[in-house]
Amino acid sequence: MVLRLASSFASLPQSRQCLNPRLERKGLRRFKRGYVERPQILSSTEDAAVGLRVFVVSDLHTDYSENMNWVNSLSTVNHKHNVLLVAGDVAETYKNFVTTMSLLKDRFEHVLYVPGNHDLWCRRESENYVDSIEKLGKLLEACKGLGVRTDPVIIEGLGIIPLFSWYHESFDQEEDITGFSIPSLEMACKDYHDAIEDIKETCDQIITFSHFVPRQELCPEKRMLFYPNLPKIIGSDSLEARLRSIHGAHGNPSACHVFGHTHFCWDAILDGIRYVQAPLAYPRERKRRMNGGENWLPFCVYSNGGFAERLSPCYWSDYYSVNPREPHNTELAPWVARFYRHRTELT
Ligand SMILES: [Fe+2]
Hints:
By secondary structure, this protein is of the alpha/beta class. The chain is globular, with a radius of gyration of 20 Å. It has a single domain, classed as Purple Acid Phosphatase, chain A, domain 2, CATH 3.60.21. 29% of the residues lie in helices and 15% in strands.
């Protein structure tokens, strides 16, 4: 596996099209200052009865044939007027990535995407790429060719902002459970400053989305996890700071952030921002989880001018809505303790 990321990625060309006079004036000012970056305003053929509908899904992992079949089985009719946000980890091979995004674009009017770690891994086709940066360029090119957006847009007044992100070990601030080797990676972030500023000024409702996790409270405590060091490879404080700079430090009722990566369904409001994860995840995970997802994904997070009722059930965010976190408690949960006792007995 070759995985090397820099602090910024190559920018995609930004659209010049703008239908809002306010933005036109701002754009003109920026053009004079040498900027041309602005959010594109996309039209929607939304169903008048329900208005704009935005669906979300993450962690499609279509290298598993079951998952590719699931994507293939999505209606080619029902979503023709809908938007889909794909919060990363589509597939590890370029071929499966392109097939998946092409299937989704056939089904949804607008598809937006942020890269996940699996998308950038080169381990299955290392002969094709020097490193993950080169692969990222290829994936973004493919998205552009398919009409999949990776830049901030405004659709029917709703601002949608993809946040490219990576994780960093410093994200993990809870007590360590020792005894495991820790992978680490450089953090990388990429976004579109001026386009985001335009959306902040123009839109009352904004959805941001990233593959990685912006807050540690959006993952179960490590004593609950079969891999307790997971928090070290899932998120970044910089990502939380970035989305707060968009939604406001204290959030607001029209602020929503969609994420992925950990494969745990999540729907919780923390400090005024609603955080949602709706992963397809691996086939084996769907089988053992209470709300597998095949029958209800993608999750409609926005409809008819407002955000949807919360995703339910969400085992872990439901758990933390009534149970406080105990970050200093390192006593393994019974199922984790059983797992490691069994491992110890085997060795
Ligand atoms: Fe991931």
